[in-house]
Amino acid sequence: MKPVTAGLPIGGAIARIQSIDVLRGAVMVLMAIDHVRVYSGLPAGGPSPGIFFTRWVTHFCVPSFVFFAGTSALLYGYKPGNKKKLASYLLTRGLLLVILELTVIRFCWTFNLTYDGFLLAGVIWMLGWCMVLLSVFVSLRPLVVGIVGLVFILAQSLFSFVPDALPLTIRESFSHYWEFIYPSGRDAAWGMSVLYVLIPWIGVMAAGYGFGTIMLMEPAKRKKICLAIGLCSTLAFIVAGTIIVLRQPQNPDAPAFIFQLLNQRKYPASLLYLLMTLGPVIALIPYMEKVKGWLARVLIIFGRVPLFYYLLHIPLIHGSSLLANFIKDGAVHPEWWAHAPFTSVPEEARWNLPLLYLVFIIDVTILYFICRWYAKYKFSHPEKKWLKYI
User: Fold this and answer.
1) How far, in Å, CA of 305 to CA of 147, rounded?
2) Cα 149 to Cα 190: distance, rounded to the nearest angstrom
3) pLDDT at 354 over 50
4) Where are the domains of the chain?
5) Could you give the 3-state DSSP secondary structure of residue 59?
6) Under a CB-based contact definition with an 8 Å cutoff, are residues 146 and 206 in contact?
7) Fewest CB within a 10 Å sphere: which of 9, 149, 347, 388?
């Protein structure tokens, strides 16, 4: 494998790769749409095509972000002899993310300091623990890590049988903790609501780590491999998904074929869900490496400070939703989200799509100017080591 002479290994270090920043920035923007939708009260996946696709387009966010977190980890640790440093970074940053999920992020979702009513094992929780696990794997060759990741993805359903395979004396207590790994139908420990289990997501991050070796190849070879992986994954989703939909019993009240095909399981993420989302994103990588214009510049800013964006966007969306409710109805209704951001909003108080997208555009515009300032500050102060964690 020949390293790229421009933009990658230079004196043992790795420069930033534009395609990763652009695509990561794009999924951060899409994520904001879904979180505005949460506070708007509009249900995920329906009932109208507009609401369905508002939700569906955001499905690309988590798979892409987790996958590129693995890729970025390999690029961060590419320097010879840097494996220990990489493992230490993944371990400490992962634990930081877990702490942030349980404290700052929990408060931003609810604006409520009463923590005994609701605790969420959300995307940052999952991302943090996946980084902790990846810190163990990085001592292995990237190809091996990537293969292990694919095994976790392909064999994920087997993990649901683990609790039942244990002796009765420990099965019940163990199963409550196993719910953080893969769902088996029990309640999670400590009364937590588990939105993202670790499998198959650790597999997605590990696969992304192995994929990082492809990002180190010459552009022409990298493009060919990315297109092959991306297009084959997308085609596999279309073919397998179509077969599954067509083999299901026909119900006259069932949604149209396209909605059944695109409505893949996210919790936990099925293989078809991951093929549907990661396939197109991987295929787009070669075309994002030299994209220019104001939109690319905006996305690069977001892609370079993703955690800062995430920590900022939740309280901003929450606050702007309260303001939008006040302007719309004359009341802010903070009680709707005091214990969980996914509480149902009364149907008569739900927003329409134009209001949802108006709030989204305003919030993303605000986020851009703050993130642009932070990105400049972060990259102009390399001596401040703590900045690499946010």
Assistant:
1) 29
2) 28
3) yes
4) 18-389
5) helix
6) yes
7) 347
